[in-house]
Design goal:
Layout (H helix, E strand, L loop, with lengths): L5 E6 L2 E6 L10 H16 L5 E6 L4 E3 L13 H7 L2 H10 L5 E5 L2 E3 L1 H7 L3 E5 L3 E3 L13 H5 L4 H10 L2 E3 H7 L4 E3 L4 H13 L3 H14 L4 H16 L2 H12 L9
Parallel strand pairs: 2-3, 3-5, 4-6, 5-7, 6-8, 7-10
Antiparallel strand pairs: 1-2, 8-9
Helix pairs in contact: 1-3, 9-10
């Protein structure tokens, strides 16, 4: 599918989704959010895709948040209210993708762009990355990104960032825990390739079952979570890939995943 605001390519089982608005610091428009949902749906449906990378074009920004000048009203109050739910729908699509999702971050990841990065499973950031929630400074509040933020760091730290609007550099982000890895700018692509290569080498079936169980039990009480996880263990051990993995371990050889 040809996108207006995105680039989409698949190589070696990795789909790379690039927000392609460098002149706007890859800000989120209605079109970008809808096209991101389409791109993730394509990646989810494609059996050749085992890992997805989300990034922004250019070297200034991963995504600098909402395009405040391009997301004004005009369609009516109710329609605008519904459109504002597109980011929530996008987050749900990301969590229900069934495949590892890695954010590749250079430059600014602010406001909705910050939430977009943290809605990914893992975040690899260049050392020039900056994260923040500046909404408070323009009389707004980062309501929609609250969930990915509090799922990615201590809640009171998320609240402090939302109340102050301060920027967080890559090294502090790694210390707080919402960035998986920080590397020099010229090492970013290599680091992402190494991580996605590792993820793509795993059984896609077991990866989906395990990742789905992670998001499915995130907000459950322990007893409810265990009731859900118990049958999944039986389902997993009944797959061909589980049998192949055990055989390969016993025979001291690399496994050959069938994806079933």
């Amino acid at each position: 599918m040809v996108h207006e605001s995105l680039l989409y390519e698949v190589n070696d089982h990795v789909a790379t989704v690039t927000i392609n608005r460098p002149e706007k610091r890859n800000s989120l428009s209605w079109t970008v959010m809808t096209e991101l949902r389409q791109a993730f749906a394509d990646a989810k449906a494609d059996p050749e895709v085992r890992v997805v990378v989300l990034t922004g074009a250019g070297d200034r920004a991963f995504c600098a948040g909402a395009d405040l000048t391009g997301m004004a009203g005009g369609a009516g109050y109710a329609a605008l209210h519904d459109a504002r739910g597109e980011l929530a729908r996008l987050f749900r699509d990301m969590w229900e993708l069934g495949k590892p999702l890695v954010a590749r971050v250079r430059g600014y990841a602010l406001a909705g762009g910050f939430g977009l990065a943290l809605a990914c499973d893992l975040v690899v950031a260049a050392d020039d990355a900056q994260f923040g929630t500046p909404e408070i400074d323009v009389g707004l509040w980062p309501y929609m990104i609250t969930v990915p933020l509090v799922r990615s760091m201590p809640p009171k730290r998320a609240l402090e960032l939302m109340m102050t609007g301060r920027r967080v550099g890559a090294e502090e982000a790694e210390r707080i825990g919402f960035v998986t890895q920080v590397v020099a700018v010229d090492e970013l692509d290599r680091a992402v390739a190494e991580l996605t290569g590792t993820l793509a080498s795993k059984s896609p079936t077991i990866m989906k079952l395990g990742r789905d169980s992670f998001y499915g039990t995130w907000d459950l009480a322990a007893e409810e979570a265990l009731r859900l996880l118990h049958p999944l263990l039986t389902v997993t051990t009944s797959t061909e890939d589980a049998a192949e993995g055990i055989s390969a371990f016993v025979e001291k050889r690399p496994p050959e995943w069938k994806g079933r």
